[in-house]
Amino acid sequence: MTNSLNDMRHAKSMIFIGSNPPEAHPVAMQHVLHAKEKNNAPIVVVDPRFTKLAAKATDFVRIRPGTDAAYMMGLINAVITNGWQDREFVDSRVSGYEEMAEVAAHYTPEVVEDITGIPAADVTRVAKLLATNRPTSLTWCMGGTQHHIGSSITRAFCILQLVLGNMGKSGGGTNIFRGHDNVQGATDMCILSHSLPAYYGLSDGAWQHWCRVWDVDYDYITSRFKEKKWMNEKGFTLARWYEGVIQEDKIHQYTPLKALFQWGCGPNSNSQYHKVKKAYDMLDLIVIVDPFPTMTAALGDKDNIYILPSSSQYETEGSVTSTSRQIQWRHKVVDPIYDSKTDYDIMAELVKRLGFADEFYKNIKQVPEDITRELGKGSLTIGYNGQSPERIKKHMENWHTFDIDDLQAKGGPCNGEYYGMPWPCWSEEHPGTPILYDISKPVMEGGLPFRNRFGRVATYVMSGREEVQLAAKGVCNPGSEEAGGYEEFKDVVPGTNWKTDLSQKTIKEALSKGMAPFGNARARCVVWTFPDQVPIHREPLHSPRPDLIEKYPTYKDKTNHYRVDTRYESEQNPELVKEFPYVITTGRMVEHMGAGAETRSNQYLAELQPEMYAEINPVTANNIGVRKGGMVVIESPEGGKITVRAKITERVDEKTIFLPFHFGGMFMGESLADKYPEGHAPFVLGEPGNIITNYGFDIITQIQATKDGLCKISAA
Amino acid sequence: MARMKFLCDVERCIDCSGCVVACKEGNHVPVGVNRRRVITLNEGKPGEKSISVSCMHCSDAPCIAVCPVDAIYQRDDGIVLVSKKTCIGCGYCFMACPFGAPQFPSSGFFGARGAMDKCTMCAGGPEENFSEEEHKLYGQNRIAEGKVPLCAGMCATRALLAGDADVVADVYRQRVFQRGSGVNAWGWSTAYKKD
Amino acid sequence: MQRRIVFVSLLTLVATGAAAAAVSAQDQFFLSPLTHSVSVYFNKLIGIIAGDWQGYGQLFTFLQGEWFATLFLAVIIVVPLVFLLHYLIVGAKHFDHDGEQILFFSRYARIVHFVAALSFSLLVITGLLMIFGAFFGGGIFIRSARYLHLVSAVVFVVPGLLMFFLWVRDMLPQLHDIKWMLIVGGYLSKKKKPVPAGKFNAGQKMYFWFATVGGAVMAYSGYLIWGFGASLDTVRVYAMVHNILGMGIVAFYLTHVYMSVFAIAGSLESMKTGYKPKEEVDILHSRYNYR
């Protein structure tokens, strides 16, 4: 998130879209409710479901799943046509605005109503509400991202905030709540197939940078790969790894995948989960590292599965990064119990046996402090270099000296610093950056302009217009030597830039001038490398509105998308809705976590939510002939089929079925209780909702589209 | 002496059941026994509201009035406790309670209710403070440690307040003032009529 | 005539059940979508948790908290006190046990009665122990009394039913019962004047109905209280019924004990042997139909 959970207390209005914090992020709710009570801030909830957040909201807008981009562009259009945009902000800090406005003009309230099902009057009303209650905090979660146009949707969110001038302001920002306690940390370390840690990518330069950090020979790393070209190729993603085994779509790799290593991974969060099961039985080796046996452990029919019991977070320690970009130290409470080992120990044993312990542990003598030091040393792009283990621990010890409202320590040993030194924290003296892109403060006091990432000038294909990408004259942080936009710092140490200069002289040079190492530019509305340069609506692959498919078709099929061909155009079939008339969407419940292996094994949580269910509107229930407490059969176009309890509720509308995705341990009618290691079956077994989620993956990130598929349903 | 009270702010309760699980986990309450629970009205509809309910530790508590064996008593700080050794499990307190607080784990005798179990406000029981017996029968004694009960301590949105009635009332009054709307403190008129 | 009276007594039983059913019906709490009145809203919440506490809950609290124990105490003090006075003033009735004896109770009747008497006495004693549990300090003693109460109740059901069918014909009210009641069965006088009664007098009849029909109500309500087998409000009503009816039964129980042990000398003996002196039958059961 660009701001912090605490900073949401300063919001004058809030909009949540595809986010349900009372269930997914209950702890964040205190700040949301604080803003509601103290600032009288309206809370707008945009969701296909009347969620628990909607119960606390001032305005609930029911949207058709997968049409978020249309609604956002509609809001942007309403803001622009009514003259509510922040002109000064747009003129001085945003690029590609005109091109974007032209695209947005298509999304009139009436068009938006047709696409999203939201009344036209509500589009204008919400736009006005946000415009008159600035700053607005905008939050989205998986509901905004898990679509085949997820990348466009999230960009539309950001553009709305730019147009309203809410970026870089206390109480504003795009505040995406991360799902787990250290997901931000995991993302920052890029536990992903397309980038080295800290978003360096997979270029040769990136590899060389990290080899310098690791103090390992670049040629040695190269030698570990079959061919050098694979070093620069994106790998399979979590969403589609199983295609690397079952190859229903063509793969682009010299061999199918042979082994699967799942380290703290809830497998039943994969869409089309019944296809994942096929992959389990074709692999040579599956290793699961988890405190609880995951569904993988029980689902595979082949004798190819090993479980390594890892300890819980309470039995180990280290640095973790919160959703507010704050780095905290987690101390150990007890030693690992039973046969479990900490993740560090399991990793050490593996590395030893694989024979590269020397290279692996070159900089790491003291676990885990040296790990934090090493990753900090290399992660200059996002300013992880200022948070030494000593500083992090000092913050933990002086927790009480930080202000709950602005997170700054008032006096005490951490005086002036922001809690957890939210990244970027450019040096050991830097206090951390509590709000990204905030030019009201000097850089050394936590201020920051927009990053200069995409050159000095750009020419837009759409309009042929040329635009300077740097911030306008006079727009900079107080104390900046350059009174206006400037490019990123480089060649302070010859041959390096601020990201790759491990001596950090470049960063220090910038800071000494009161400037940001990464430059001072404009936030862009046009992304010339994306298929949709400006976000537009495209109908979900499996759309319940065949009439709209023609108007808003999906992309062309994409070959070699993270090593596997991905269908778009050829998958979008207007006839599908005839057989599968209901929209399926998934989500969380507060009692269970992720794939639920841990929480379904807790007796008290099991007692609170003991059974998988599908939320069905009373009208739907009566139409298909199911009564309260009855069972329903739900089938997906891909052949997934589950029988679950019907929960009849007005949370969902008549066209939508909602499934929580935390359940596991049942598979298409078969209980796997006997297949767990003896005595380790969770208390609660249920059909994974993801057996029903459909085919569909984002065009850029390949995230699975779990929120807008189709299904059919009948009484069991 | 301070009067201890509970207050659940309906505007803040988000139905996360964190209080319920904290209570059970922290006090090792058996499955099926709910010292605290969250109730939701109008689920999935406009007007949906949730509230966390347990023993309110009423002044002039009806349970004390009806107990045929005088197993229930009130401490000077207002906390209502039960002596499990004295209780016969007759269930009268459950019939008298406006909040459905008393719980009855089975005793094993022809489905007979065992000794009544209810929220202790994390103040243990009549046995000696911090004794093994107290811990076994009633769970933690956080009040004696100077801490707030587990449920209120765990509440993410600070909907559930517990402690000195004056402080609790002040916090709540401030919230109501901020909101600019007079919302009743749920259950207070029933539980604390007299003070 | 007789049938009509039976009908009336059965009607009482049905009415009690109907009242309970009416309470149960209210438990279905239908929620309207939006309530603007906060107090109405909170009452609904309370309704989900604790039923109609304002109505039945408070009534139960008031009765149990303030009255039940006191009333029971009054019953077990006042009733024996009255009989003590009677014993001192009027005294026991003596009949010639050496004269002609009549087989009044069959062996079967005696066994049934004995089992009933034993379990019934236990019910009364354990019931009273619970009522005055605080006096005995609760704990294992009273808890055991509660368990024994259940055991006795289950045991009593068998002879209770048998006894009902055994004597129900003789227990049907008759016109002369009114006369019996007007002269209180002749117990206020020392004279041995024949009183109008068949095999059983009106007092015995009343006790019979209390013990059987009342017993059935007690058993059913007790069963619900034991397992919370109905909605909370229904259980509350039954708890009140159980207590109030219990008072009546205890009063009759004490009467019966006094009559058999003290008021009519040798009466206990006849329940053991089955024989009653002919003199006694002629006086106290003057309309007894010799067969």
Give a summary of the structure in a few sentences:
The complex is a heterotrimer of chains A (716), B (195) and C (291). Chain A has 716 residues and is of the alpha/beta class.
Please describe what this structure looks like.
The complex is a heterotrimer of chains A (716), B (195) and C (291). Chain A contains 25 helices and 23 strands. With 716 residues, chain A is α/β, with parallel strands linked by helices. The mean pLDDT of chain A is 94. Chain B has 195 residues and is of the alpha+beta class. Chain B has helices at 18-27, 62-66, 92-96, 132-138, 150-154, 165-179, 188-191, and strands spanning 4-8, 36-41, 49-54, 72-74, 80-82, 160-164. In chain C, helix 1 (2-26) packs antiparallel against helix 9 (232-263). Chain B binds chain C through residues 39, 41-42, 45-47, 49, 51, 53, 62, 65-71, 83, 85-92, 94-100, 109-113, 183-184, 186-187, 190, and chain C through 31, 33-35, 38-39, 41-42, 44-46, 48-50, 53, 57-58, 60-61, 64-66, 69, 130-134, 136-139, 142-143, 145-147, 150, 225-228, 232, 235-236, 239.
Provide the fold topology.
The complex is a heterotrimer of chains A (about 725), B (about 200) and C (about 290).
Chain A: E1 13-17, H1 21-24, H2 29-38, E2 43-47, H3 52-56, E3 59-62, H4 68-81, H5 87-93, E4 94-95, H6 97-104, H7 109-116, H8 120-132, E5 136-140, H9 142-145, H10 150-163, H11 183-188, H12 204-214, H13 218-223, H14 243-246, E6 259-263, H15 273-280, E7 285-290, H16 295-299, E8 305-309, E9 318-321, E10 327-330, H17 343-354, H18 357-360, H19 369-378, H20 389-397, E11 457-459, E12 466-468, H21 505-512, E13 523-524, H22 546-551, E14 558-561, E15 564-566, H23 576-579, E16 582-587, H24 603-608, E17 613-616, H25 618-624, E18 631-635, E19 641-648, E20 656-660, E21 666-667, E22 670-671, E23 709-715
Parallel strand pairs in A: 1-2, 1-5, 2-3, 4-13, 6-7, 7-8, 16-20, 17-19
Antiparallel strand pairs in A: 9-10, 11-12, 14-15, 16-23, 17-20, 18-19, 18-23, 21-22
Chain B: E1 4-8, H1 18-27, E2 36-41, E3 49-54, H2 62-66, E4 72-74, E5 80-82, H3 92-96, H4 132-138, H5 150-154, E6 160-164, H6 165-179, H7 188-191
Antiparallel strand pairs in B: 1-6, 2-3, 4-5
Chain C: H1 2-26, H2 38-50, H3 53-89, E1 101-103, H4 107-131, H5 133-136, H6 139-171, H7 176-182, H8 202-227, H9 232-263, H10 267-273, E2 275-277, H11 278-284
Helix pairs in contact in C: 1-8, 1-9, 3-9, 4-6, 6-8, 8-9
